[in-house]
Specification:
This protein is 12% helix and 23% strand. It contains four helices and ten strands. The relative contact order is 0.23.
Length: 269
């Protein structure tokens, strides 16, 4: 296994799905719709965005000319405090190619820890959004992750319990823009795949803007007074609505997604 390539047992199925999708989606904006089993792969019809609705399966695309990375949020690194630099100096990432898999201390790769918010967006698998009366629920194909964004008007708890995905509340800014505010994100997660870590004061704001029926943009701002000298504003993420009736499959960190044979000695110590 190379430094940057991770083994996946679903590669053949994914390849067939992407081949079919390439016919329907313009080049330069190919979406990876994961390993699900769709009824068909015809691209969703266009049109205006439905008001106050993000329902559906969404997969990241790469528009021509837009910044795109599978490891970090911006071309330039964030500005760090002395403490933030100390944390970063302890990280040995492999996704950005700086260390081999046998050398990394990435918590996702060595311990199968959930990636957390917002790092979860770097995993190249889709997510589905569904609603209940009190919450917007994000179901990730990667590792069975479920994230709840409360929309019933509640505030964050005064002393929230740290969670892998944090505690999230959301509200509509207008008919096409939904804002999520997240705190209490477990300190064992990294902000990205390149090794930038955070403290217990990490605060993430996500702005979901549905441009039209099949296009979604996500803008992310990260704040942490202990680690970041100033807010880290990510480059915009772009998503495409999956074909009709697309169903999520599952990618398990331990077994399907990673080959842990390289870590046997590490895990025994």
């Amino acid at each position: 296994m190379t430094k940057t390539k991770l083994a996946s047992r679903h590669a053949p199925a994914l390849g067939l799905a992407l081949f079919a999708l390439a016919v329907a989606i313009p080049s330069g904006a190919i979406a990876q719709f994961g390993t699900g089993s769709p009824a068909e792969v015809t691209e969703q019809a266009g049109g205006p965005a439905p008001p106050r609705d993000l329902t559906g399966v969404w997969a990241r695309i790469r528009p021509e000319g837009a910044f795109f990375s599978n490891a970090t949020w911006t071309e330039a690194p964030p500005e760090l405090t002395a403490y933030g630099q100390e944390l970063y100096s302890q990280s040995r990432n492999s996704n950005a190619g700086d260390y081999a898999l046998s050398e990394t201390n990435d918590p996702v790769l060595t311990r199968c820890y959930p990636p957390g918010t917002p790092r979860v967006y770097f995993h190249p698998y889709p997510f589905e959004i569904v609603y209940t009366e009190r919450e917007m629920v994000m179901l990730y194909e990667y590792d069975h992750i479920v994230r709840r964004i409360y929309i019933d008007g509640r505030d964050h708890p005064e002393d929230p319990v740290a969670l892998w995905q944090g505690h999230s509340i959301g509200q509509w800014r207008d008919d096409n823009t939904f804002v999520i505010d997240t705190v209490a994100i477990d300190e064992r997660t990294w902000m990205d795949r390149a090794g930038f870590q955070h403290s217990d004061e990490f605060h993430v704001t996500e702005v979901f803007h549905r441009v039209d029926r099949r296009t979604l943009q996500i803008d992310i701002t990260m704040e942490d007074p202990k680690v970041l000298a100033k807010p880290w504003v990510a480059e915009t993420l772009y998503y495409r609505l999956a074909p009709q009736n697309w169903e999520l499959s599952e990618i398990s960190c331990s077994g399907d997604y990673l080959d842990f044979s390289s870590f046997e000695e590490f895990l025994e110590n």
